[in-house]
Design brief:
Elements: E1 3-7, H1 14-23, E2 27-32, H2 35-45, E3 50-53, H3 62-65, E4 72-77, H4 92-113, E5 117-126, H5 139-158, E6 163-169, H6 185-189, H7 198-210, E7 218-221
Helix pairs in contact: 1-7, 4-5
Bound molecules: NADP nicotinamide-adenine-dinucleotide phosphate (NAP).
NADP nicotinamide-adenine-dinucleotide phosphate binds near residues 10, 37 and 177.
GO molecular function: oxidoreductase activity
Organism: Asanoa ishikariensis
Pfam families: adh_short_C2
Length: about 230
């Protein structure tokens, strides 16, 4: 129990993570780029959940946006700027935005909230297996998800004794992003014979938040796709 902030809490994974933390008794704040989006997600989760507008693609605005937050026990950063970009059709504007969200915005959120961390507070950053399994169009996503491991390692010392870890989900089959897509090629590659689920990502996130010995690590929740 404590105060949980889910940056990207309107998303396919962020919202169920926020709902889970609220259901177990945390005081929860969810963020979106817009006030309306954040407040709608907060209302969907339930009474007492707060919605806040935070745009990680504009890092210079983050400190003011997070001013209403006074204390933090659990900080989960799921936000992403979706982009498909190959080298041949490299979208410079989308690449700068997407990298800014994960590689600058995530850091700035941690910097701003660091002094409001309560004892035993911890942070979970969201990457993804595109880090190790590039696909056509994943150039930007593969690059910034690969950067998050280094980010966790450099921040672990600087936020000590608080902890920071990265979770790399595989393709989450029942998330809004993938549930209408039949026969994803990772099913055939997966030793568990299916894609991972939202519930498994929520559970792994809670594990990283709770377990007081894990720090500066990258946890893959992908059903073993990377072993095949
Ligand atoms: N779903 C999967 O299968 C999967 C697989 C591997 C990795 N992942 C990773 O898991 C994380 C969550 O994925 P998801 O499926 O939940 O994504 P999603 O449904 O697209 O949600 C993305 C979230 O990011 C927020 N966001 C977008 N741009 C933002 C910005 N500039 N500043 C602040 N927030 C912003 C969105 O809020 P608004 O649109 O309301 O502003 C939304 O809450 C991502 O980092 C993704 O890379 C997901």
């Amino acid at each position: 129990m404590g105060t949980a902030i889910v940056v990207g809490g309107t998303g396919g994974l962020g919202l169920p993570i926020a709902a889970h933390l609220a259901a177990r008794g945390d005081t929860v704040v969810v963020t979106s780029r817009t006030k309306d989006g954040a407040e709608a997600a907060a209302a969907e989760i339930g009474a007492g959940v707060q919605g806040l507008a935070v745009d990680l693609s504009k890092p210079e605005t983050i400190e003011a946006a997070l001013a209403p937050i006074t204390e933090v026990d659990h900080l989960v950063l799921t936000a992403m700027h979706p982009t498909m970009s190959t080298l041949a059709e490299f979208d410079v504007v989308a690449a700068v935005t997407a990298h800014t969200v994960k590689l600058v915005g995530y850091v700035e959120v941690v910097r701003v909230l660091r002094d409001r961390f309560r004892p035993n507070a911890s942070v979970v950053l969201f990457g993804g297996v595109a880090k190790d399994l590039p696909y056509p169009g994943s150039t930007v996503v593969t690059t910034h998800n690969a950067g998050l491991g280094g980010l966790a390692k450099t921040l672990a010392g600087q936020i000590a004794p608080h902890r920071i870890n990265v979770i790399h989900p595989g393709v989450v089959g029942d998330s809004p992003r993938w549930r209408e897509v039949p026969n994803h090629p990772h099913v055939a590659r997966s030793p568990i014979g299916r894609l991972v689920t939202v519930a498994e990502i929520v559970d792994a996130t809670e594990f990283l938040l709770r377990n007081s010995g894990i720090n500066g690590q990258e946890l893959y929740v992908e059903g073993g796709v990377l072993t095949s």
